[in-house]
Fold each of these.
Amino acid sequence: MEQTAVETWIFAHGTFWALVPPVVAIVLALITKEVYSSLFLGVVMGALFISQGSFPQFLDSVFKNGMVKQVSDPWNVGILFFLVILGTMVALMNRAGGSAAFGNWAQKHIKSKIGAQIATICLGILIFVDDYFNCLTVGSVMRPVTDKFKVSHEKLAYLIDSTAAPVCIIAPISSWAAAVSGFVEGEDGLTLFVKAIPFNFYAILTLVAMFTLVLMNVEFGPMKKFSEPEHVLDNKMKHVQEPDGRGGVVDLVLPIVVLIIFCVIGLIYTGGFFASGEAHKGFVDAFAGSDASVGLVLGSFGAMVFTVLWYICRRILSFNKCLECLPMGFKAMVPAIIILVLAWSLKGTTDTLGAKDFVAGIVSGSAATLMNLMPAIIFLIAIFLAFATGTSWGTFGILIPIVVAAFGAIDPELMVISISACMAGAVCGDHISPISDTTIMASAGAQCNHVNHVNTQLPYALSVAGVSFVSFVVAGFTRSALVSLFLGVLLIVGSLFVLRRKMLKEKDY
């Protein structure tokens, strides 16, 4: 109630000014290549809009109702715990020698740089349960392998980020499916989610683009510079730590497998799968109703305890050396934690300024006209909103109820396509946003400079976004996922083929 009362007198509430603080933070981050101060300045600008000259309220907006509030939020605390536990598990696996052993094994069985990248993509697709879990797990497992084949950390971060949210948004059993289902009122959310999968062009075309880029060995934009041998060598030499134990491949693979199993169990536990009586839910319903923040903490903590006991029983690490990995894991995640807290604080100020109301007004006002073009328009609006706020789920929460209300009774088929456009645009905007938590954790998983990751990924993601926009225009008129997707794949593969021929000609000269 307090926030509602405050919002009534904020001059910027529900206007374009509500999106200015995140846009300024993003532009500053891209220009200065320094993300901490850029995000903090965005928070400060939002607080200035909220306080309107009141210094005490300005301080409250930055700290009490800003960073302190975000750090004390139960969901956010769970994600921070999850980060620290995964960081600890990575430190354990590195110190036990499991990561080094897996790298040696992979060097013998994975014969090329292309093979290392394909293996990274495939592992990212297999870990579809949650994007946070995907980013940090794939990074910790595949980084030793990609380092050996001189794949830059920037390229690894792109592969991780592109198999996180884009895979989760087309996986019916994932925390993202649960979130989307929860935003659909008056409809069967999970059924709509499944129907929308074939029309989720950005997610599907991102996977097509990744495989094509790797197989054709095409690099363009800033990524091309970071793939040069001297940069890869410098990047590789950072973060090198000699293991204390003599672990084998099993000492990396088994903890990861246990981590996946325990996290799934943790998720369905929070959704009521193990409850008795009327509170009990089936596997799918439990997953749809899960609390990802709590479930991932429970699963990762159980996996960490198992990993410690496993290493002690195998006499790879002593109990004291295992405990020393806890502060090491926390230290490794401090940069990601700082960025996440600032990004959450910026999102909080954006919510207070009424960015949701501004965007909702634009969408609902145009829903009655240009019906066949609405999927493409919604796709663009979702990109901008997710980019500016750094959240896919927040974008779902704003746009999906509007789409259902606007098209549910008029044109159910167009409603499904528009929901897909909303999800695709939200993932795209999240994918290219420097303040997105998934983008931040992809950088952490790959141990890559965050701004470098954003800059190198941007041309790749925007290329797929442009093709996806064309596919949504076609889908709005044809209502056919097959025709639209075929056109999108043709454009992606064709453009990369032309680009590869151009690169080969430049090398000849």
Amino acid sequence: MMTHSIFTTKPVARRTWWCFLAAMFLLTTVSCVDEEGFDDTPEGNMEALWQLIDQHYCFLDYKAEAIGLNWDEIHATYRKRLNPKMSKMQLFEVLSEMLSELQDGHVNLYSSADVGRNWHWMEDYPKQLDHELREDYLGTDYRIAAGLKYRILEDNIAYVVYESFSDAIGEGNLDDVLYSLRLCDGLILDIRGNGGGLLTNAERLAARFTNEKRLVGYISHKTGRGHSDFSKPDAEYIEPSNRVRWQKPVVVLTNRECYSAANTFVRDVHNFPLVTTLGDQTGGGSGLPFHSELPNGWSVRFSACIMYDAEMNQIEFGIQPDIPCELNDDDIRQGRDTLIEAARQLLRNL
């Protein structure tokens, strides 16, 4: 059964406004990095980058506690690797490795030749996803609506794959997809491998799975140059969509490649009565990213706002599923996806 509601959705506007204010503050304070007069030399660029992170990155205190990060020691270690005659590529490698110490997929260094990145959050773990198997479940006659691929499995379970929150899903798309699946006994939403995208898409989708306004987390913004200078956490809510909403059980499939907006989506629906998460821990990525620039023109992306769950827990390193589940080699050999089959069994028993 599905229903419409007279409630309206407001969280997108709230988050957008706060992010705008945070961006304005950061634009005025981060520009001070350039005003310090750092030279366009290996040492000048490193000092500018280290100070940028030291004053504006939002997870230094948390990662000192969680992984033993010592940003001052990192400064000393990487400064020893500088050489006034080193090439641009050598400097890029040193600075990229320094940023990798943060273990943050939202931290990047951009040059004209490469992008410095850290994919520790997914590369060091099993994928829990076989793309060919997933295509077998979808078949060749599945439907496509914006970024959603969907079909009805033979046991009358709806199966929906959403591979990127960068793929726009309009309200009309969601109305039509959910309505076409209305006679199904349950829904599997497979977001394994979804590396994120737009928070508005995550919120829009989450709003289809609740009938009540729900507190889903908090957001706090960097307000000064000290490691602990943050605004008072602002509550974030998901309000039920005023359009078609799903009224039956939902299982969300997750893995370590669920990052950024996908991580936030899991946070948002994690405690919804109709939703169960199944699979592996998400990859994390709870810091909203902003950009700055080094003296040599290289661009830097870094996390500047912290997002928490509804209990004020950090979700930067991911969210545990309600039901842990791993791909089984025997299942794979038999053409079965362990996670999908576990979700089907769970929905049949509800």
